[in-house]
Write a structure and sequence with these properties.
- The protein has about 220 residues and is of the alpha/beta class.
- It folds into two domains: about 120 residues, Response regulator (Rossmann fold, 3-Layer(aba) Sandwich); about 100 residues, Orthogonal Bundle (Arc Repressor Mutant, subunit A).
- The chain contains eight helices and eleven strands.
- A hairpin with a 2-residue loop joins strand 8 and strand 9.
- The model has no long low-confidence stretch (mean pLDDT about 85).
Length: about 220
């Protein structure tokens, strides 16, 4: 499975550490640059799917970095900044930024905006796969051994959550938090058990001995990395 690669251009060490850890937990691969010069060097050496760019950098300037990046690469950019006045927003967007979020921001809101930009720009068109299960996130199609598997909206979201946190143990409370916002009905602990059972019946060769979504006793569930 290919991972979405993020370049974080930020000079605040605390933000770098906390945001990198959070985004990795969300399934992103993150590299950082503390200034414009290092950012451009990384872009020459590697391919990235999205750039998170701070406006005020100790080395260089976010606006000039945006102009330089956009002149050479087709990579979406989201500005991170403490400047929330209208002029700053308009300036950033006119320079080609794809979105703009002011500090302090909620990490989950940032991730939501990132996924929206990735979807809008077509940068998240990567197939997800585990054993003989494949998911096309753009078309919303799941297949098993090449044959389409029909999942409900909540089953599909649950499967994506496992892909996004592949290799991590997901507690039941973590899973409930992730699927709460798209559920058309109240999802409690018992309902979650039912949906995991249904999902396993559709994607596992033997639902009684799951190989894709495994139970980690006393902790939760995990999709193998």
């Amino acid at each position: 499975m290919q991972t979405t690669k993020i370049l974080l251009v930020e000079d605040d060490r605390l933000i770098i550490e906390n945001l990198t850890e959070f985004l990795k937990g969300e399934g992103f691969e993150v590299q950082y640059a503390e200034g414009q010069e290092k950012a451009m060097r990384l872009l020459e050496e590697q391919e990235f799917d999205l750039i998170l760019l701070d406006v005020t950098l100790a080395q260089g300037n976010g606006y000039s970095a945006c102009t330089q990046i956009k002149s050479r690469y087709e990579i979406p950019i989201i500005f991170l900044t403490a400047l929330d006045d209208e002029f700053s927003v308009v300036t950033g967007l006119e320079m080609g930024a794809d979105d703009y979020i002011s500090k302090p921001f909620r990490p989950r809101e940032l991730v939501s905006r990132m996924r929206t930009v990735l979807r809008r720009t077509g940068r998240n068109q990567k197939m997800l796969s585990c054993q003989d299960i494949c998911v096309d996130p753009v078309k919303g199609i799941t297949t098993k051994k090449g044959e389409e598997v029909f999942l409900s909206a909540l089953e599909y979201r649950l499967l994506l959550v496992f892909f996004q946190h592949r290799g991590m143990v997901m507690s039941r409370s973590m899973l409930l938090e992730e699927i709460w916002d798209i559920a058309g009905e109240y999802v409690n602990d018992n309902t979650l058990t039912v949906y995991i059972k249904r999902l396993r019946e559709k994607i596992e060769d033997n639902p009684q001995e799951p190989k894709i979504i495994k139970t980690v006793r006393g902790l939760g569930y995990k999709m193998e990395g």
